[in-house]
Structure formats: C-alpha cells, structure tokens
Protein 1
Amino acid sequence: MVRFQITVDCADPERMARFWAEALHYSLEPAPEGFDDWNAYWRSVGVPEDELGCGFDSIIDPEGHGPRIWFQIVPEPKTIKNRLHFDVNASGGRSVPMSDRRQRIDDEAARLTALGASVIRILETEGLDHYAIAMRDPEGNEFDVA
C-alpha cells in the first residue's frame, strides 16, 4: 500500500490548517506524545528557533481514512491558478434529487464562506446533471463544492 500526504504551500499555516480542518471535518494534528506542543517537538529534533512558531500546521482525518494534509510555509505568494485542487463533496451524490443537491451545496458554500472562503462562480450548464460552486480558500487557492 502506498501512503501519502498532501502538502499545501502557504503564508499562514495555522490559519490554513484551521480553515481546512473545519472545511473537511478533519482535526488539527496533535503534537507527538510526550510533547506539550509542536514547537517543543521540533526543538527536540533540532529545528532552529527562527524556524518555529507556525503553531498547528497539519490536519488529519479523525477516522483515519483520508490523507494527512500539511500546510508548509513558503515566502512567495500564490500567483497562478492551482494545478491541483480539493473537491468538497457535499451534495450526497447523483442518487439525490438535483434540488436537494443544489441546496446542500449552497449550504456548504455558505458555511465555508463564513469560515473565510469566497465564491468564484457557480458551475452549472443547462441540461447537464451537475451543479457545483468554485471557491477560494483564505489564501486564494481554488477548490470546488460539489
């Protein structure tokens, strides 16, 4: 079995970790056993003081099914469209009537907007069995609610 984590470059790891933990129903990853916080752990393995202070920078699936997501601080800002993005599945799937799916997606987009996301556009085409909302997280990374 291949295991992986998703790494997201960002300016403010804790802000992003808190947003995406709420968005994906994940949990902030606790510091390793025996350490009061992540800075204490990182000090114990030799990370210099000037590289500490990000706070929580990773999230985990509380049920253990999804990948760990790490928010890595980088100095440069986001400048172009993502080549990879998250899809937040809120609709319940195609077995759910379109009116119910649309309402679930709209409700989830409203919840995420309250957490700091913003709407880019509605994704729907007349005659297609598809409805989604393209959004941006607090640092401008694109994602869809479908």
Note: Residues 97 and 129 are 10 Å apart (CA to CA).
Protein 2
Amino acid sequence: MPVLNRIAAFAPEMAEWRRWLHRHPELEFDLPQTAAFVAERLRSFGVDELHEGIATSGIVALIRGNAPGPVIGLRSDMDALPITELTGKDYASETPGRMHACGHDGHMTMLLGAAKYLAETRNFAGTVALIFQPAEEEGGGGEAMVKAGIMERFGISQVYGMHNAPNLPLGAFQTAPGPLMAAVDTAWVTVTGKGGHGATPQACTDPVVAIVGMVQALQTIVSRNVSALDQLVVSVTEIHVGTANNIIPESGWFAATIRTFDPEIRDLAEARFRAIVAGQAAAFGVQAEVTYERGYPPTVNNPARAAFAAEVAREIAGPAAVEDDVERDMGAEDFSYMLQARPGAFLFIGIGPGEGLHHPAYDFNDEAAPIGASFFARLVERALPL
C-alpha cells in the first residue's frame, strides 16, 4: 500500500503548511506562532478536543473513531534551532539566527496530514491523541509533557514518534527493538590556576596545560575503562581559555558530551570523568569544578510495538524499504521520556539526499510528508481496527 490516496490529494497543501512553519522558526518552549498555526489547522480539521498550553506551548488534540476503544498517542516536536539558515530557498527563515535545521517543520506537517485524514475518515475504534511537543532540542519538552500528566489525563495506552533521516532513501523506514538512541549527559569543567606573563610560566599555575591534560586523559574512559563491545562516546566539544598570546590566563573551561545506553556504563562514565578531572587538577596544582548534568535517557522501543510499527511501514514503503533491526544511534531524543511512560516505538523516515541534521543548509524534503502522514494514519487504523 503506497501513500494513501486522500493524503496524496492534499500533499500540495501540506507543502504549504511546512513552508510556512519553516519561515517562522521558534525556539524551545517559546512557540506562540508555531503553536497557534498548529492549533488553527487542527480546529479546521474538526478534531473533537483541542487542549493548548500544556507545558507552556504544547498541544494535545483528540480525534475519536467510529467505535469506542483505547487511545493511541502520535507525537511531533515543534521547536527549531539557533542556526543562521544558508539554504537560499524562497521560504527560508524570516528570523535571523533561527531555522528549522532538524526538520521539526516536516514532523509537524506529517502529523497534521495524518490528523486531517483521520478526522475525515475516522476508520478506527478508539481515540487518537495528537501530541505536539515543544523544546525537544533544548529543555526536555517531552519530559515536561509527561510530567504535565498527558498520558494519564488522556488515557494514552501506547505512543509513537518519528524523525526524518537525511541521506536515507526517500520513504525508507528504520527502527529496532529495545535501545535505539543514546542517553546524553553534559559536563562543564572550570579550571582555575594563577595567571601571569607568558614569558614567566614558573611564576604561574597554568590552567591551559591542565585543561589539555584533562581533555587527553578523558579519552581513556572509552579506550581503557569499558569493553570495546560496549557503546560509549566521550567528546570534548568546547574549550574556552585565554585572551592574548603573551598572557597565561587565570582560568578557563571546557565542556563535553557523554553518550551511553547502559545505566551501569552511564554511572561508570560519570565516576571516571570526575576522578580523572580531580586527579589531573591535583597533578597540575589547579582547582577544578565539575558540573555534570544527566540529560535525556536512552530511547528504548518496546519490542512488540517496534515490530508492529515496522509491519505498518512495510505496507506503506514495501518490504525492501524497511529495516527493523537498525544499528543503535548515539544521538539522543527526548521522546525517550514518553517511551518510559508508555510502550511504543520511535522510527526514522528517509527524506533522500541532502545536508545532514543541524546543518545550516539542511532542508526537509516535502515529498516525504505524505509518506510519513500515511504511515501515521495506517498505524492508527491497524492498531485500532474497527
């Protein structure tokens, strides 16, 4: 079964929605234009209930089928990124320094397309809860929505989400049972020594040398503290120190991202990170302050729900275009909080060749939107059959 005929018929309208959203990117929880646009579309489709302002700017809309039954949740994120767009498209961001560089404009469009179809047909027994979530990129909007009680309030029994994948063939799907995406933690380390003239290092306690030592030693967490068969990433991504070439600075700082799947390895990585920084600080005679923040948990699919989602994807894309046991991804996703609250699955949908996510020249492929909308719609009809 390819793209559903009714969804194919309003594909041009979906492209218009997506391009409007692309022109008006907003960040984190502050999404007044985005949320208003989504709510206006949902009202025009005739959803049965529309609940706005959840976790500041989140939305849950309910569509009831032609018979009673359970509630299935479908989720889209809504926020953009603080990136200056370089696509040159005529629908490029109208807000300097912000753009939809991760395709959340496409995610909203896919879910809106499914909503329009489901509100018209209602060929299912139960209720669909359409979840539009703020602050996936920063702020943990998925956790905020769960803490706001959406699962209990709307009786959601299972939940599904989807993310676009550049350079995966258009309309292909990928998922896997169990862990699919990593947990993400962030560390900031401030190193303080004694500054002075670059010509007299013996009179100083140099934080630059200490930071360099710490950054190098932290790489041993992966290479010497865990098995080569385990999955762990420790990447120092920022170093900020110094103001001039003849000054040894008083202090500096660096930041790192730590990605894991296993809770024990997650604990080990934090313990070793702190111990290495402390040891290096003592060796170089500096003071080091570590701020270590646990972020999104791993995204863990329910095996049965992932297998079901892959089965539905095969109906839309064909058996050859669906990979149901893809390798784990070290990226992170706050849909993980919803999967902690309810069984469900997360998938990737291919949008064809192009720049990668978070690149200033990235753009969502509008041809993917009807495919994703058809997947969501068929998922509901299969999960809640009349």
Note: The chain has two domains: 5-181+298-383, 183-294.
Protein 3
Amino acid sequence: MNPRLLRRPAAVVLPLSTALALSVVVGTADATPAHHDATARVVSTATLPDIPLAAFSNGLPAGSVADDRGVDLGGIGSDLFPAERPGEYWTVTDRGPNGQISVGKDKRRTFPVPGFDPAIVKIRAVGGRIQVLRSIPLTTASGAPVTGLPNQPGRDEAPYTYDASTPLSYNPNGLDTEGIVRDRDGGFWLVDEYGPSLVHVSPRGRILARHVPKGLGLTGADYPVIESLPSIFLQRKINRGFEGLALLPGGDLVMALQSPLLNPDKAAGESSRTTRLLRFSTRTHEVTAEYAYRFDPVEVVEPGQTKTSELKISALVALGGNRLLVQERTDKASRVYEVNLRRGTDILGTTWDTAAGPTLEQLDDTASAEVPVLDKRLVLDLNTVEGVPGKIEGIALEGSSTLALINDNDFGMTDGPAAFDAAGRLVDSGVETTLVRVRLTHPIR
C-alpha cells in the first residue's frame, strides 16, 4: 500500500587550568571480528579530568550552583560535532545530574544540583586527556540560565531534591539537551527530550527559538516557543524525546526520536521497534519530511537482552548527500548503520503520521509491505571493538574512516538512595567521560 494514498488533512573561557592537568594512558587494542568491519580498532583513548561541577558552572552564570554535592563535570557526551580544528569537538551536556529513588510505589526523579545550567562545551583530546577549551551557558532572552528542570506538571516527571524528600519547582525554560550541530553562521542547533523540541541557539548561547510539537501549550518561557513540529510527537515517551541530530550538506537538519512514540498507547510504544526521524529546513524553519526507522530485534543489538523498550537512537552523523549514520543502542551495547533518505520514504502528513490504527508503532515484520521504513546497512558493531566504553551517545566522523565516540557518564550518578552518603555527598560511580577514536578498514564517506 502507498501510504500517501491515505493522506489526511492534516562564550566564556573556563578558568580550570589546574583541573585540566590530569592525564591517562592512551589505549590501543585490536578488535574482535565485526560484521562489516572485521578489524576496526581503537587507536586512542582520552578521559575527562575531575572538575568540580560548581567550579565549572559558576564560571558561567556566576553563583548558579551553591552546592554541587561532590559531583564533577560529566554528561558532556550527549553528542559530538567536529569543531574548526582537527581533534576538537563541540559537545553538549544534558539536563545535569539526575537519578531516581523509589518512595513507596512512586519513582521520584531527583535533581541534586537544581541550579545546573546545560552548556555547550568545546573540547580537545590530547595526550590521553580531554581538555575543556570553552564553555557556553544556555540562557533565556533576558540572559537567565535555562536550567535542566522539567517544564510542565502532568507531562514531565515531577522534580525532587537529591534525597527525593522535597519537591522542586518546574521551569518552563528548562531543557534536557542532547544532539548538537553548529551552523555556518556560528550558531548552534540542539535537540531536547522534554518537548521534544529543536532549539536554535546564538553563538553566545542565547535561545533564539524552541520548536515544539503543535498543541504542546508551553507557557511562561523566556524565549520564543514555536509550535512547528507534528502533533503526533506529543506522544513521546518520558525521557525518550529527540536524541540525535545531523546537519546535511545543504543545510537541512535531521533529528531522531530516541524511542518509539506511545502511539496509540503505552503498550504499543513499549513493544514497538519503529521510531521516527524528522527533516527540518533551517531556511524556512519548518518540517519538510518524516521517516520511519526500524530497530533490529533487541537481542541482536544486545545479546541476552529481552526488553524491546531498551532500544534507543542516540546519534546521527551526516555522510554527504542524504546519507546518514544512525546509532542503535541499549545502555550496554551499540551498533552503527547507514541509511539513505530516499524519495518515496517520506511519511509526513500521511496516515502513519496520525493515531489512526493500526499505527506505525503497532505494525511489525509481518506487515512489512505496509511499513515505509528506511533501508539500512550495518557499518560497525561496536560490541566487538575492544576498548569502547558503554553508553556511547556521541559520534563524529574524522576524515573518511575514523569514528570519534564519546560516552555519557551520567555525572557519576546512580539510581537509588545509595547514590549519596549520609552527608549528602555523591558516591561516585567511577564511570569516566571517555572519548575514543576507532579506525575502520574501509572509508564510509
């Protein structure tokens, strides 16, 4: 069936010289065989030094963090985009340290450093360490920190203090930032999980516009909020909004929904293997196409895993033309595929872009003729490359045959009441922010 027949109406320099003195040994290891790149191997490894979060944050909006509870800078691995010089990258933090604590039957979302302001961070990997070169705080139109706090009661998780004892206030300016690209004018585009949204940012970090799904009804934000995205994206799963972002050579953006929509309901979304990509024109500031992306079975991505809901997209990389790398992952495993956004695969405005049943998320392999999913080709199974850390969320391509990968260490946070000691100081997980470079045997650009 042709789905179109079913169309319906539709900068601050960071003063951290002493903190940046730590270095680690560069690691090199041969990889075990991969499906398409049997001898891909890690050729360098670098880690981020321990930088107190208060020192980092208070070098941006002064006084934004009174107490970092012993948390170090982390979370910068939400994405990776090549900067102007080789070996330098733009990254972005997520919403900041957060966890979950069960209180009775309720799982409460904790924000131990509620004053934390998400930031764009420029880094360089050199001599086995990650150097912070520059940091740009995200601010509202009036220059206030946006923070990483949830936006709307009833739609987002309620925020609590580090011990889950005291509610915190929602913040309509708050962003859970993930993907990042830099445009030709020196500004940035980010994606966010809360809306989900696409965020346009000036070179100095001021929010110029936040594009959200039609019907979101977000009020009180101190920057322009534009309802320009398809309303079906209101059905995103909590904490699984937009995660990946790519800048095509012609200037269009492609953003990836981390997990399938809860469309028409939670049961369909949790069991689905079909998520969505959106194409956005930076010239007209409107969505121009939508694509269906089908995950591999979860046991293929992570052998032994049985929960389909663990599947996520975390990174997109533009290769040239309409070609993209797409990273499928769980928290423990990761695979990289190539797709081509060919004509005839656009589902924008069709019945697949509605909640009419059966929805895109309800269809499975047995209905393959009905599903206009993108064709894909496996490029690399990162599970087979020795030395790659877990929870990779940022990928960049160097030249034609080297992938730079960075992980999200969650600021050293873990879930549960044991995340902090009796004095309210972090019990660090020991997971470091790590950037590795993986050499492929064949060029992919």
Note: Confidence is low (pLDDT under 50) at residues 1-35.
Protein 4
Amino acid sequence: MTTTGEEHTAAGTGPWWWVRWRSAVLDAGLALASAAECGGEGVRFAHDAGLPVPIGVVFGVIAGSVLLVRRKWPIAVVLVSIAITPAQMGFLMGLVGLYTLAASELPRRITAALAAMSFAGMLIVTFVRTHQGVMSGDVTMGDWFVPFASITTAIGMTAPPVLLGLYMGARRRLMESLRERADSLERELQLLAERAEERAEWARSEERTRIAREMHDVVAHRVSLMVVHAAALQAIARKDPEKAVKNAALVGDMGRQALTELREMLGVLRSGNGADGRVSAASSSAALSSTSSSSSSSSSSSSGAAVAAVPLAAVGVAAAVAASRAADGSGVGAVSGAGAGGVVEGPCLAELDELVGQSAAAGMVVALSVEGDVRAYAREIEQTAYRVVQEALTNVHKHAAGAKTYVRLAHRMSEIAMQVENECPPEVGAGSSVRLPSGGNGLLGMKERVAALGGVFVSGPTDAGGFRVSAVIPA
C-alpha cells in the first residue's frame, strides 16, 4: 500500500530529526565541508581582524558546523551565513541554507525576506571588496566592473539556490499529494471490493432462501395432501375398493405434480454447471423418472402404505438433491439467470380453484369466495398470493384437520387481499388421526414473501379457537 508524506516521515528510522540515515550522513558531510571551508577562510579573517589565527580557524569551524541543523532550523543557518558574510566565509553554507529554506514548508514571505537580506549582504560585501581591489590597483577594470561584479555575484549566490529549493519543495508536495490520493483511492477500492463481496454474499443468501421457500411450498402442500389421502386410503381400502382406487389415483397425480415442479426447479439449478452438472442432471432425472413411473404403477394398488411410500420416497429424493445443490450455492447463478424473475415460473391465481379443490378432495370442508373484478397482476404478485393461500391450507391440514375453512380473495383498486380462516378443529379422535410434521417455517416464509413486495402480513388465532392468515399486497 502506498504511504503519505506524514506516514513516510513517521515511519523513518534515522537518528534525531532525520527521517533516514542517508539524510543524516549527507548533512554531516555538508557540515564537515562547510566547517573546512570556513576554517580555511578563518585564517584570512584572523589576519584582517588582527586576531590570532587559531581563534579565526575555530570561529570558522564553529560557524560552518551550523549547517548540520539545516533541516531542523533552516532560518538559523541562513541568519548565520548572512552574519559571517562580511568576513568572506560561509559561501557553501549560504547556498545550502537558502536552498533548504526555500524547499521547506515555511511561509514564502519568510523565505523572501531572508533571501533579500542575503542578497543585500552579498551585494554590499562584494561591492566593498571589489571597490577596494580597484582602488588598490589589484583590479584594472573600468568603473562599470564594480557594480556589475557585485550584482552578478549577489544574484549568483542567491537566485539559483532559492529557485531550486522552490522547485524541489513544490515537487515534494506534489509527490506527497499523489501518495495521499493513491492511498485514498486504494482505500476506496478496498471498501468497494468489501461492499461488492457483501452484496454478493447477500444475493447468494437471498437466492438460497428463495429456493428453500419454493421447495417448502411445493413439497409441504403436496406431501401433506398425499399423506391425508394415504391415511384415508388405509381406512377404506377393504371397505370400499372403488373409492380406494380413486384416492390412490389422486395420490399418484399429486406425486407426479410435485415431481414435475421439483424437476423444473432442479433443471434451472443445474443449468450452466458444465459437464458435471449435465451428468448429475441426467442421473437425477433418471431417478425422478423411475420413481414417477413407480408411483404411477402403484396407484392401482389397494395397500395404502405402499401407495403412499413410493411418492413420498420420490419427493424425498428430489428434495434432497435440490437441498444439497442449494446449500453449496452451485445453482444460485443459474437460478438468477433464468427467465425474467430468476426462478421457474410458479402458479397463478387462475389455479386457485384447483388448489381449493385438492384440499376439498382430501376431506377438508373449504369455501372459496372472490370479491371485486378479477384482473391480471404481475407474475410475482399472483405467485405470492397463490403461495400464501397454499401454505395456509397446508397449515390447516397439519394442525386443524377436519376444521371448516374459508378462503377469501378481494380484488381492490390498488391492492389484492387474501384471507384464510379455519374454525376450531373437532375434538381429537373425531377427525383424522394423521399427524403431520411441521418445520415451523411456513408463516415465516409467507411473511417474507409478502414483505418483499411491500405488503402486510398478519396471522394469529381467532376468538372462536380457530386460526386466521391475512395478507394485503400492493397491485
């Protein structure tokens, strides 16, 4: 990951105020060179000032060594170089000090003021020294040479380091800005990647939930009716063989319907899985076909247990295959890409009469009433309304066998409402003795379906001892 300038500085491993050891070594070398220069120039300064030579050398070495702190106190370095300019020493320190000052983060007005002071000091000292040389005869030039040499020297000792320092400071700030921008972009990309992964995981979870809900709706209702018919078949197999044959045929028809719906779901789940998917599809289809044919041949048998066992086994095989594929997520992508809604097209409201008729054929006393003008709705709305009624009837079969049930469907201006209400079930022993298992997910699945479409779902017991399921879906 890229680092910003502050992070880069904080991560330094150099001594004291240096970020890196390389910078410390460079400053130490420059300070040593400046000390040597000022020490050598201190000899001439001592002769001119009438001081002992060792004093002039020590003064020069101390003054030149100030360059060691140029990164921490650049203003002090420039002021010292300006102060020793009259002694004609500290030229290296002046150049490096002005460069460091211009490249630092100090206000530009401070840099301009100190650069002007350095320029003025160099101009005055050079003018005086050059004029003394002309007057003493050491320099045989015209009067124009003194101001020309003074200005040229002052500009040469001031402008280049200041301009170079300004350029390097701007370049460093630009690089730090680019580092910060790259760091920010990298964090944004990581955040987007995490969000995309979360959305993908959420989509996979939603798809698994939807597949599980469809499997539950298909299996629970069909199998509940099959178990009820099988129990009735066992009760009347010897007393009324003709009715037993009819019940066996109903069991076979329901088993084939369940297998057909499951086969369609599994076909969508298996699509796009490559060779392995086609092999498993072929084997699963063969198993489903064999069990379907077995249930068909068993429908004419007078043994209720045998009739019920084959379709239940077939449904169990299909459900196991679908559950295993939905659990490992192998069919999520295929389901999402199938059709407009991503799932095999389910039932519609036109099939509601057939649904109620199947429950009536299983011995339930059920009445269907429709209010309002019948009209077409979106596929998702019709399928959800159908599944709510289907699951409510399934719960009546499971928990209130023999209870009279009322199914109401109302077509309104901007919504569709449905209600399934059953009366108090008869006393234990008065109705069917079949006990159907419950997974506890029926009401939760109905609520999730209705809420996904922006509707309202309410369920609960009635004052009369029955149970009511109501749902309103915006149209």
Note: The beta strands are 366-371, 405-411, 415-422, 456-461, 467-474.
